Protein 1
Amino acid sequence: MSYVGRFAPSPTGPLHLGSLATAVASFLHARAHGGEWLVRIEDIDPPREVPGAADGILRTLEAFDLEWDRPVLYQSSRLEAYAQAADELLASGRAFRCRCSRSEIRAANEGESGRYPGTCRDRQIPSGDAAVRVRVDAGLVRVVDGLQGTSDVDLAASLGDYVVVRRDGLPAYHLAVVLDDAEQGVTTVVRGVDLLDSTAAHVHLQRTLGLPTPEYHHLPVLVNRAGQKLSKQTGAAAVDARDRSAPARVLDLLGLAVPPQLVGERPRVLLKWAAERWQIEALRDRRVIEAP
């Protein structure tokens, strides 16, 4: 099977050093395997999106010579496919509608967790102003990760029946990412370890829908000196697309020390050098990397 990888940012702001590192790692892993690298814009949460952010992300990737191999896929163009999948899950009894609020779920769990307690499982709730949840029965879901190891997750105990369509009618992350990875033929997912906890739900949904499970590699995330993941919420600065030193700094963080004679070279030259030396295993069992 040919290698297909992807980078799938949400347009909630510009790329920062952490998201650029994820993009570079996924790009290098694809190139090291002679595969395709795709870019997908996860623009299905309008309240959180920043106008112009999607274009800004793409221009930054272009500035650093991170060239994608197919047209960019915008999740907002796939709403009909998500709705059809949700309808099929409901019709087959593998999903149900739910009107529980987060506060009601917390109250049912006595505030100890966000696990869904199954309140609406056997209720017949009409469409409209209702979320759609996939049924999770007892049993372990095995998650095999190339960097963080193998784990058997009791999804019913930890998460419960999970949302695939939000109460406002928008598709949830779990549904969109699983369907899009299958639609694009993604074979390998390289992303941040902050998404590792979502992977058991993704594997479960892939099995429920009869879709293939890609290979997963969850990278350590970049953190600031306070140990906080770099993000818009923690004040991470946007990457300056004109900063010629940024690619070398990212490669260094990923364990590839750029030789002095290559520092300042065009990103294309650095990426070619790095792809020839890329060993994702060097990041195994690490969950954080402190950013300078």
Protein 2
Amino acid sequence: MVVGIQVADGVVYGSLAMGGTAHGPWSDEGVADFRLLHAALTSRIALEQARRSLADAVAAGAQTREAQQHFFASIGHELRTPLTAIVGYTEMLVDEAGQNEADPFAEAVGRDGQVILRACEQLMAVVEDLLSAGRTMGTEESREVLDVGAAVEDVLHWHRATARASDVTLGCSVTSGQTVWAHAAGFRQVLSNLIGNAVVHNPGGAVEVSTQALRGESGEPRLRIIVRDTGEGLTVEQLRDVFNPFVRYARAGVRGTGLGLSLSRSLAERDGGTVDAHSTPGRGSAFWVELPVREADAPV
């Protein structure tokens, strides 16, 4: 008796044969034992194949993260060096032009120099975002159990002065004892981006941070940290593109690079999570980061 050993997608890894010294049909017990052995071997081979596939995926993911970190660091340093020179020489030209305001050419240099400096400041902010992301993603720290309430309170404290200046009310309804399994620096960076956006785009409004316990597709525990605001909200089209790099939907005078949400999603995905949102024009938005919770730390 010969039976092929197959695993997923019908891939044949070999065959299993059984022979006997006597002629005639096989006994029911012999066939049952053979089928049991066949099933056990097939299951073991499939498990080993899955283990190797997982190891290959983890290795590929590590290489991708390393390349991403190298890109952020390299592009940041390569841009910052010439930008510093441009800013320095432009400031010199503007200062010299200010000492000779009667000259029309000097007046034009002074006026246009300010435009160059503002553009350089914007680009420098982009560079700093790239460098910050590279440092955060390149850190050697491991994932750990993080107290969500403590992290949210820290980040709200960071933005309290900005919120007070913009007349924004900050609120927190995070349940005590809730945790996530993530990198500490990356988690706080994501929270800072989401809360910071809610504050600057919502003058005179309110920002509330809350949580929601969930289960993933495989039943694993997860926690969603939600940042709600009462701002202008986004349309469906804007919400579709808002996580793309350099995409911004801000009123005039609000500074930013358009990288915060894109980098936040990358940081969350590194920890097996995600960043997403829903919004209603005229009523506000809710942006959230969803992260895994260790099974032992999940509420019963």
